[in-house]
Every structure is written in C-alpha cells, then in structure tokens.
Amino acid sequence: MKELFPPKQVLGFVFSIVLTVIALSVYFLDMSFELAMTILLITAFIQAAVQLVVFMHAGESKDKKSIYTTLYYGFFIALVTVFGTLLTLIWGYY
Amino acid sequence: MDFFARFAVPNPGPTIYASMVAIALTMVAIFVGLTYYKKWGYLWREWLTTVDHKRIGIMYLISALLMLFRGGVDAIMMRAQTAVPENTLLGAQEYNEIFTTHGVVMIIFMAMAFIMALMNFAVPLQIGARDVAFPRLNALSFWLYFFGAMLFNISFVIGGSPDSGWSSYFPLAGTEYSESVGTNYYMLALQISGLGTLITGINFITTILKMRAPGMTLMKMPMFTWSALITNLIIVFAFPVLTVALLMGTMDRLFATNFFTTSNGGMDMLWANLFWVWGHPEVYILILPAFGIYSEIISTFSRRNLYGYKSMVISMVAISVLSFLVWVHHFFTMGQGALVNSIFSITTMAIAVPTGIKIFNWLFTLRKGKIVFTTPMLYSLGFIPIFTIGGVTGVMLGMASADYQYHNTMFLVAHFHLVIIPGVVFAMIAGLFYWWPKMFGFMLNERLGKWSFWFIAISVCVTFFPMFISGLDGQARRMYTYSESTGFGIWNLISFIGAIGLAIGFALIVYNIYYSIRYSTREIPADPWDARSLEWATHSPVPEYNFAIVPEVDSTEAFWDYKKKGYKLFKGKYEPIHMPNNSGVPFLMGLVFFVWGFAFVFGMWIFAVIASIGIAACLAHRSFEKDHGRYISVEEIEKTEKDLGGAKE
C-alpha cells in the first residue's frame, strides 16, 4: 500500500491542489488588487517549492547540496534583477 | 523582381561591393577546392557530424580566428577613417555599421567562440573525462553559434548591417529610427547563437559536476576547470535575460509591440537595463576563463604550484555573485538618482577586491619561481601591467559623479579595450600557444611567437593610450569624423599607427601557424611544457577516447605528482570504451535555424513556418531515435596506444 500511495507525494498532491484552489479563489471572490496579488504571489512561490521538492525530488539524491546551492543562487540573482530594475527605473528615478 | 528588392543593401558603397565579390570568390574557392581534392566526404564524416569535444573545440577555434579577422578589418577601417580630421574614406552610415559589427563580432562571435574553443578542448581532458556530458548537444551548441554568426555576417551584403551600436539601444534600434532590416539581423543572430551558448552552459556544468575522474574532488580541480565551472554558471543565469530582451526587441520590431517604444506605455530604458543585466555578467563570462588560463600558464612556467588555490576559488565565486550586482554602472547618466548610482558605484568598486586577490596570487606564484619565458608566459606576464591600467581607469569610470565626465567618450573606449585585449585576447593567444601541441601534435614557433607578443603588447598601448587623452579632451565615441580645430587629430593618428602594429602582430600569428605547419617538428613529447594538469598525461594529438585508462587523482596536481613523486596515475587495465556516435542532425538543425532566422529578419512568414516545422522535426527525430553509442574494443585501444608511442605503464 505504501508503494502505491507514498504519503509524501500524496500529501504533496493534495497540498498543491489546495494551493491551486486558493489561487483560483482570487478570481471568484471580490477583493482588492493588492490582496489578490499578495495571495497569488505567495501561493505561486509555495507551489513552485512543493513541485521542486516533492515531485522533482530536489533533495533526494547525492547532489542535494549542489542542487540547493544553485537554486538559492538563482533565487538571489532573480530577486536582485527584479528589485534592482525597479529601483533603477522607478523608485530611484527622478 | 519585387520579391528580391528587399535584399538590396540600403547604403551600398565600394566596401560593400568589394566584400560581395570577396565572399563570392571565397565560396567558389571553397567549393572548387573541396570538390577537386574530393574532401566533401571527409568534411562531412570527420567534422560536420562530429560530436568529439576536441574537434568541436577546434571548429570553434577556426571560427573565432575568422571572426577575429572580420572584426579586425572593421577596426582598421575605423582607425583609418578617424586618422586625420574630416576624412572622407567612409561615410557616416558606413562608419555606424562598422562600429556596430566590430563590437558584436568581437564580443559574441570572436571572444565567446574563443573561450568555447579552449573550454571544449581542455576541460574534459583536465578532469579526465572521455567527452562532455551531452556530446550531441555540444555539437548543436557549436552549430547554433556558427549559423548565428553566419546570419550576422551576411547582413552587410544582404539587406544592410545593423547600425545602432553593439548595445543596440532603443529607441534608436526601434523601427522608427532603424528602418532597415539591420537590427532584425542583430536580434535574431544573437538569439540563435545565444541559445547555443546557453546549451553549452548547461552541458559544461553537468560535465564538471558529474564526470570528474575518481578522486578529483571539487577542490582538487585544475584552476582552468574551476573558472570554466563558474563561467558556465554565470552563462546559465545571465543568458536568459538576453534571450528575453532580444525576444521583446524582436517583437517590437516585427510585430509592433510596445516594450521598448517611447509611446503606448513602452519604456525604452528597459532595454538598456536588461541588456546590461546580461551584459555585465557577460564581461565576466569572458574574463574568468582567461583568468583560469593565466593561472595554469603562470604556475606551469614558474615551476611552482599555484599560490592561494582556495582564495582563487573563493574570489571567483565572489566575482560571479558581484557580477550580477553592478550592471547600472553602464548607464550612470541615464537619469536615475544619486542613491541608485551610489549603490552601484559601491558594488562596482567591490569587484576590484576579489580581482586584486587574484592578481596578488599570480604575483606570489611568480615569487621565487624558476620563471621560463615562453610565448604563453610572455602573454601572461604582459597581461598583468596592461590589464591593471585598464582596471584602474575602470575604477575611475565606476565613480558615478566622475562618470558624467568620462561617459561616452574615447576615454571609455580606451578603458574597455585595455581590459578586454590583455584580459581576453592575450589569454586566448596564450592558451592557443599553450594547448596547440596537445591539439595538433606540433608546437608553434617560439621566435615568431615572441615577435608577435612584442608587436601586439606595444601596439595595444600605442593604439589605446592616446584615446585617454582625446577622450578627456572631449572626443565622443562613435563619431565618424571631427574638425581640425578640435586638436584630436594627432591622438587619432597615433592610434591608427598602433592599429597597424596590431594588424602586423596578428598577421605574425597567422604566419606562425603557416610556418609551424610546414616546418615544425612532429617529434615532440606528450608533455612539451613540463606542465602540471591531466591533459598532458595523454598523447599528442589526443586519441578519440582521451585516456585509455581513466586516471585516478589524489591532489590538485596529480600529473605533477606522477612525474615527480612517483604517484601512480593509471591503475587497472584496458577495458572496452563506450563512445557516442556521430550525428548530422546538429548540423542540419543549425542550418534550419539559419533559414528560420533569415525568414524572420525579412518577415517572410511562409519560410518561417516551414523552418519552424523543420526545427520541430529535428527535435522529434532526436526524441524517437534509439542511439546507444558504440564500443571501442580493447584490441583497437591497444593498437592506437602502440601507434601513439606505447602505453604508459
């Protein structure tokens, strides 16, 4: 039974469906733009993390360390690029 | 005839007609030559379909040298035009096209190809692997790069060259101000060859992380391999930005979207921003492999192990992170406030710290070393002072407030040429001389090599030092002419003389290659430089499978230990070796991409659709193909090893 329904994957699947439902609720419920975007951003990032760890097996091989190092590195670069661009072209622009 | 009218060059001049004739003659010569000597089959079997990393490296090398010639001719024409005031050798439009293609060709198609050449050739050998992780993909990378380069190069005879600078800033590069197809060529050629680079990045990270010889931990890798790992990591994170920016630019030009326009909510400065988010890491993609090559060469010819191995690695990792934090320094004057400029000024200056650590490590490696002045070593030693001048002026440019004075002048041009030429070009030439015997089984002539070094090193200074002065006097870059009363004449004349010296230096290298092919002895040992890393442990030229027995490694300099300390490198006996099969699909796919790009440049949608189907067909073919590679038998290995001078041990 455990081979047919590995608990981690089954729970991960349920969780990702829950996340999808929450994200979808933004469309059906009446809420402000800021709140809607916050919900979408948060659920999107959790969703991505669930997919990586549970379904793409990020932490299950010998390369765990290099996989996570590159992931964090990529995450860092992406944040710097996005916020650096916002800073340069909008917030810090006169 | 209407259909063909679109291919006409908008501003034809004598230079364009001359190059049309030259291209036609070269094509005919190649075609006739191959047919006459019956080499078509050889070309197809041994080169066009190869997946061998060494041959792919050599093809990159040949392409890079060709592109160096193309970019060099552009450079000479620019210097000739500006040598005297009010010169009429070139028109304004021609000059714009020439400085644009000079920049793109030199960075994307020469320097990138050159580092790819040396990485492809040396990295698998240095880590004791038989090939890269994905040999077929590696061939695809090369053909994408090659056909991207060809697409870019035909622009000046079909439809007109791009003319808005190598950075191709919008709105100048938009349809409003660049009506010809030139900038379409820029967008699509860079897109295609950029894809190839991105694939190489993934390929080499996997190779280095997964295919090292037993015992070679990350901290026992040769320094060039380390630099290749970091470089490819930067490639994987930086190139997607270029891909997206080029896509947005292409959409703006072909489908009238408004990403970079000045109206309808577009933001022209976003292009400059995205371009440099890629562009600055790109600088480090070029310089880090060069640093790796210098580390190898300086340690080899000082007869000492590299000083500060760990700090070398840490400083490269630091550079790779910092390289993503400084891009705004390319446009300090675009209008953002003092806070933004201060932040990026500080990060820019921070990069000087890890770079300085590396310079000091090389100096400490030299200290108390038994220095041998070979050609590669001369280039490495020449690099240090000239690069330092380029670097120091870089720190000057990095001060945001002072940058308002230097920005867009010849001072900037002098700075980045004095960084890129000693940083990248010297390293590539040094690497070429250093690995040449491993590639081809004979050495390049040392006497001619040293002459070329002195010509190039002195001429670089003669060419670019005067630009510091004329730049501070206010000569803007990219001006096709100037009046006599500006007083720039004398400095530009000196520059032109230097440029001729550079041309002579490069011609000497070409002559050296010709001379050495004819006269150099083939009786050389496998390790002619008394070097320290694994690539010298196999035969020259290297057999297809690299190492008959996979070496086992126990230190950063396993081969040195093998020579001097009696360490046993090859344990075990011959076993059948599994190798990948050759394939023509990567070449065909590159060709289809070329057609695809060409169709997009001219908006010929029917051809674009057909080519897209062709690309998909190549991908599908690969997905359903069953190719398990082939085995080289023990007898065959024994025979090869015997022919190459007997098995080791």
UniProtKB/TrEMBL annotation, chain A:
Cell compartments where the protein resides: Cell membrane
GO MF term set: cytochrome bo3 ubiquinol oxidase activity; oxidoreductase activity, acting on diphenols and related substances as donors, oxygen as acceptor; proton transmembrane transporter activity
Name recorded for this polypeptide: Quinol oxidase subunit 4
EC number(s) recorded for this UniProt protein: 1.10.3.-
Catalytic activity: 2 a quinol + O2 = 2 a quinone + 2 H2O
Gene Ontology annotations of biological process type: aerobic electron transport chain; ATP synthesis coupled electron transport; electron transport coupled proton transport
Role description: Catalyzes quinol oxidation with the concomitant reduction of oxygen to water.
From TrEMBL, chain B:
Catalytic reaction(s) noted: 4 Fe(II)-[cytochrome c] + O2 + 8 H(+)(in) = 4 Fe(III)-[cytochrome c] + 2 H2O + 4 H(+)(out); 2 a quinol + O2 = 2 a quinone + 2 H2O
Topology of this chain in the membrane: Multi-pass membrane protein
Residue span, Cytochrome oxidase subunit I profile domain: 38-554
Compartment(s) where it occurs, according to its Swiss-Prot or TrEMBL record: Cell membrane
Gene3D superfamilies tied to this protein: Cytochrome c oxidase-like, subunit I domain
Superkingdom of origin: Bacteria
Record EC number: 1.10.3.-
Identification of the protein by name: Quinol oxidase subunit 1
Originating species: Cytobacillus firmus DS1
